[in-house]
Amino acid sequence: MSEANRGVRGVVPPQGARMSEQVLEAVRDLVPAIAERAGEAEEARRVPESTIKELAGTGFFRLLQPKAFGGHEADPATFYTAVREISAACGSTGWVASVVGVHPWQLALFPARAQEDVWGADPNTRISSSYAPTGKITPVDGGFRVSGRWSFSSGCDHADWVFLGGLVPGPDGDPVDMRTFLLPRADYRIDDVWHTIGLRGTGSNDIVVEDAFVPEYRTLSFADTSACACPGHEVNKAPLYKLPFAAVFSTTISMPIAGIAQGALDAYLKATRERIRVSYGQKVAEDPHAQVRIATAAGEIDAAWTLMERNIRELMAAAEAGEEFPLKLRLRTRRDQVMGTARAIRAVDLLFENAGGHALKEGHPVQRGWRDAHAGRVHAVNDPERALTLYGMGALGLEVTDTMI
């Protein structure tokens, strides 16, 4: 490694939009191989190690990472474009890429010492997560004792650290704060429990912690992330890290589903060009009803992507201008995120219903897309009633205090 490429704490690659586009092009070059391994990922119930290694080699996992630790500090729209294209090739790989790929952004919000712990020796270190506060948190001098079981930690086999959500109790035992706790691999074990019908290749296994100590500086309050005022802002001053947590993380969950829907559409079109409907002796490509489904599905997918990307770009523009994020924009971002998921689900349903009996076969990309999209839909952040109620309250001028906006 040449000294010219070495930064203060790690390798700092060339920066700017050009480098981000190079990463995106490198990811696109991997898409055919990722698609070929989709069945392998399902069978193994985890993304192949070769895929993770190749994605890491493109710089994808460092797109949202601070420059001081070898990252690109890329426009988040570039990150989500890459996620969408990976997801179109393999839903499980896209899901893991999105979730694990966004964690450098969150770590950048932690105190600088926590960032040093993770990236100081290796800027390529990855983090998985499980945010539901299902464990036990006990405040002690200097930090917290953490115990319990956390589920759905996607890509955990490919990570050396984990983010875990937890409720901090007050003197009377009632919660006074919710925090994210950062733990190294030595402090937890992975329980292999991931046996599902969709997103089978994500390896979203359980994390088990038995009385680990987490120092105060390796925690981050959700109150700080909601207020867009985090300890990491002292060292990571780029506008990227001023974005609302809820907007970034909810889009991180919905974008793979939009990509999965696009992949299902691509597979449907490929099969339909040559498919004969035996019952009617008709080429399906000549069926006007199939043509309408194609147009409707494509429109739903485009709308999902376009609206989510628009909101992220407007949030980024506000951050770059040093402006406060309008409540209307934050609410609209959550509205379009859940509606984006709903549109992707509708598109996949339209295609699967018209894909014929061959689509039922194991390994068929349309049925895999249908299963994966519906599996992603059940994530808590995709609850449409909750997000749409918030938007309706704001539109009516009512007070909105939810932390996930």
Broad CATH class of the largest domain:
Mainly Alpha
Overall mean pLDDT score? Answer: 94
> What's the helix count?
12
Number of domains: 3
Low-confidence stretches: 1-14
Q: Tell me the CATH superfamily of the largest domain.
A: Butyryl-CoA Dehydrogenase, subunit A, domain 3
User: What's the number of extended β-strand segments?
Assistant: 10
Radius of gyration: 21 Å
Class computed from helices, strands and strand pairing: alpha+beta
Write the H/E string, N to C.
HHHHHHEEEEEEEEHHEEHHHH
Strand content: 5-15%
Q: What percent of the residues sit in helical stretches (DSSP H or I)?
A: 40-55%
Principal-axes shape call: globular
- The CATH architecture term of the largest domain is Up-down Bundle
CATH topology of the largest domain: Butyryl-CoA Dehydrogenase, subunit A, domain 3
Largest sheet: 4 strands, mixed
Question: Would you kindly provide a brief summary of this structure?
Answer:
The protein has helices at residues 17-36, 38-44, 49-58, 76-89, 91-107, 112-119, 222-226, 245-272, 288-320, 327-353, 365-377, 384-395; strands spanning 127-130, 136-140, 143-153, 161-169, 175-184, 189-191, 205-215, 219-221, 276-277, 282-283. The chain is an alpha+beta fold.
Topology:
Elements: H1 17-36, H2 38-44, H3 49-58, H4 76-89, H5 91-107, H6 112-119, E1 127-130, E2 136-140, E3 143-153, E4 161-169, E5 175-184, E6 189-191, E7 205-215, E8 219-221, H7 222-226, H8 245-272, E9 276-277, E10 282-283, H9 288-320, H10 327-353, H11 365-377, H12 384-395
Parallel strand pairs: 1-4
Antiparallel strand pairs: 2-3, 3-7, 4-5, 5-8, 6-7, 9-10
Helix pairs in contact: 1-3, 1-4, 4-5, 4-8, 5-8, 8-9, 8-10, 8-11, 9-10, 10-11, 10-12
